[in-house]
Specification:
Elements (H helix, E strand, L loop, with lengths): L1 H26 L4 H12 L3 H4 L1 H24 L1 H21 L3 H18 L2 H11 L3 H12 L2 H16 L1 H23 L8 H4 L10 H35 L4 H25 L5 H21 L6 H22 L10 H29 L2 H25 L14
Helix pairs in contact: 1-8, 1-9, 1-10, 4-5, 4-6, 4-16, 5-6, 5-7, 5-10, 7-8, 7-16, 8-13, 8-15, 9-10, 12-13, 12-15, 12-16, 12-17, 13-15, 14-15, 14-17, 16-17
């Protein structure tokens, strides 16, 4: 009887959040990849400046993250997600109506507020509210879906734009938030009460830390999160430049670039399969070692056709694991009831890193070369690994049972 009650709720939870997160990321963060060239001349901006809208979005998400985390803890994730869907509708409608730079950046500021309310942290908090620390598995599934949001929405955006133009396309995307995401958040999420008995153990605090230990744990988790965010978001923008600087032709770099997202998603799927044997700290250590190893390959600089494919494969797998680690590491050290507040506070440094990192990595590659960029990446991974080791020392059991997700 318990299983019959449990699995429909989990399937509904995953289904609702997967749909709304794919729509959320696909119509906002991923959207300029297709629409920037169409929007730029109509709002009086160059293409490069048009992409500053994404930087503004990430900065706003970071600045509002702590307040949103508190709001989730106070009124619940579902209500925050509903407000976020309404704000996303407003932001995309404003962007569709923008006639110049001022209107364009006001729209992206609104989209940033909407992203803070509707993307990642509130969605993950909705899972944790309903499943406790066992929500890590749901978060992992969601990250697999959001990893393909651009694959889903780029062709949709391009096709609709070819038919009606970019302004009606953005209005149509606003309609998805209003008529799909908002009702799903409002009506379709499972209730937070009446949890199955199997999950009650998973809802207990992951570790018994005193105030000093909790402060140190939060600091080390912050270091890990910023190191991973700075590296992955920085190289997401500079990836092709890095490969070209390492000797790849334009065509070869593009081909290698298409492999990275597939391997990152595969890493997240693999983590879901084996996470019960390790936990968030094992994922963190594996991510840092893999990405650090990939940067070491670039520094060695051995000639051979295998070097760049090996770098791409190792880095991509590590980057996929790092995204999982950033999302769920707080569950290993803090009670599920504190997840939204802790994650919201972490969003501030993470998203500032996300906004600044692309500029830093591109500048280093252009002015100091690939080796300097690889040294920066290696240093960041060393910092992440050191913080993971310090986190392991804070608790008697580095991978606490409450952080496991092998609960049926």
């Amino acid at each position: 009887m318990t299983l019959r009650l449990y699995f429909p709720a989990r399937l509904r939870l995953v289904g609702v959040l997967a749909v709304t997160q794919v729509i959320g990321w696909g119509t906002t963060f991923d959207m300029p990849g297709v629409m920037a060239r169409k929007m730029a001349p109509d709002v009086g901006l160059g293409i490069d400046t048009t992409f500053f809208g994404l930087t503004l979005m990430m900065l706003v998400i970071g600045l509002t993250g702590p307040a949103v985390g508190e709001a989730v803890q106070r009124i619940g994730a579902a209500r925050v997600l509903v407000i976020g869907s309404a704000a996303s509708t407003a932001g995309l409608a404003l962007l569709a109506a923008a006639q110049g730079p001022v209107g364009y950046f006001i729209a992206w500021t609104t989209i940033g507020v909407a992203g803070s309310l509707a993307l990642s942290v509130p969605a993950y908090a909705a899972a944790v509210e309903r499943e406790g620390a066992a929500g890590r598995r749901t978060i992992g599934v969601l990250m697999i879906f959001t990893g393909v949001s651009s694959t889903i929405f780029w062709p949709i955006l391009d096709a609709v734009d070819a038919l009606v133009g970019w302004r009606p396309t953005l209005l149509a995307m606003a309609g998805l938030h209003l008529f799909v995401c908002l009702p799903l958040h409002l009506l379709a999420l499972p209730p937070t009460g009446a949890r199955p008995a199997e999950l009650e153990t998973a809802r207990r605090p992951a570790a018994s830390l005193g105030p000093d230990g909790a402060a140190r744990a939060f600091l080390h988790i912050g270091v890990v999160s910023v190191a991973f965010s700075f590296t992955t978001f920085g190289l997401a923008a500079a990836y092709l430049e890095l490969l070209r600087g390492a000797g790849a032709s334009v065509e070869y770099a593009l081909w290698l670039g298409t492999v990275r997202p597939v391997l990152s998603i595969a890493a997240r799927a693999a983590d879901l399969v084996i996470d019960g044997r390790g936990g968030p700290l094992a994922t963190t250590a594996a991510a840092a070692l893999l990405m650090g190893g990939s940067f070491a390959l670039l520094l060695i600089g051995v000639d051979g056709a295998w070097l760049l494919p090996a770098f791409v494969a190792i880095y991509a797998f590590g980057a996929g694991l790092s995204a999982m680690a950033r999302a769920v590491l707080p569950l290993a050290f803090f009670p599920p009831g504190e997840f939204s507040r802790r994650s919201g506070r972490l969003a501030l440094p993470q998203n500032i890193a996300n906004a600044v990192a692309p500029v830093v990595f591109v500048a280093i590659i252009h002015h100091a070369g690939v080796a300097a960029a690889a040294l920066l990446g290696l240093a960041l991974m060393a910092a992440a690994l050191a913080s993971a080791a310090l986190l392991a020392k804070l608790v008697r059991t580095p991978f606490p049972p409450s952080a496991r997700t092998d609960t049926p």
